[in-house]
Design a protein that fits this description.
alpha/beta; about 50% helix; seven-stranded mixed sheet; 9 strands; elongated; about 425 residues; 14 helices
Amino acid sequence: KATVSVLNWGAANCAVMADAAAAGDAPAGLLAGAALVFFFLWFALKMRQGRPADGAAPAANRVRSGNASPASWEYSPRVAAAQKEGAKVVKRSNMKGKPTGDIRGQAPDKQGEDRSYKKIKERRDKEEERCRRRQRRADRVVAGGQVGSNYSVYDLSAKLVNGVWGEMHTSIFAGRAPTTDEEKQVMKFYAHAMQGAGADRAVQGIEFVYMYDKYPLRADEMCCLLLHAHSQQPLFSNEGRPLRVVSLGGGPANDVSGAVVYQSIVGGAGVSAGIYDLAPSWGPLVTQVAGGLSLPAVQKLLNMGTDSVAMDFGICDLSMPAEAAVNSDVLDDAAAADLVLASYSLHESKALSHDLFAAVLTRARTGAVVAVLEVYRQVVLDACNLAESLGFSTHVVPNSSNTPFFGAYFVKK
């Protein structure tokens, strides 16, 4: 009612000012004009406060907007409901409701209004569900029994990968979790990778959060792919020496770690790996992973010797021609490899549209194995077609509860 009364008063002042101007009464016109200016200033102030003009909401139902004064707190029924249920209210840094700092563990009282928070929460929920599924597989091993009865070698992969990551996360990364800013950056990285937009060119700042998200998942997937291949046919004839592995676009050695766990399960002699990627910032993380796999607790878990794992990092560019100088080392290394890994790197770099991957396949020695994991099944099938044309027998891994991913392996005839 007060707002309507003031609006009527403003309209009346406009009429008075018009009549005064018509009658030539300057003082009356100036007075009406000044009153009208005051009215607009008052109305703008009320709109800026973001609450009804006829009364303020109770203090308990307001959310502080940055460092604003108490008079500019904003009323939110969502927050009132959250407080009633005992949820924690997230302090906001501006009028748009962007959360500040690390919001892990805080109640999403503004989910509907904060899209970035909602996306982060959805991503967390998805990753946590994957962790739960992997933990259930690991628990079957912990419960005891024999392989083939109460649990499978695929469950053993989950147990070993979880154990390796647990030791590494605690010893090397002090058990820390990613910050919200890191999660936002890695979400942009994933979006570019899904579009095949050369995401490996811009990894600075997301190395830890990427590893936190993907290390156990990708290591487990690669191990399960190799275990499936092992169940179909003997793979390697390395005769007691470490398995020579080359990883294309291997980043922080997730896939090579999966090969290490595979070697542990089948009783292999260890792994000597060359990890090649376009982004030099992965190099220090590869060194940390190699150190983590050499921790006494990890060696005991994997039942492997002190010198069972060796890793070197090098640069390659899957989107550059094979004869480019940056690719000379990876071609030489791949020619002597027992196992070549391409884990989620072909699509993001559009490697099948360039000739480096084909050159690696061409130079592979007889009996060499190439393992491919990808986000899209069609990319796997396209890679199979290329490998068949270059003298490989190709085998698509069925998507099942033991191998819930798109993958394939090729064997050089």
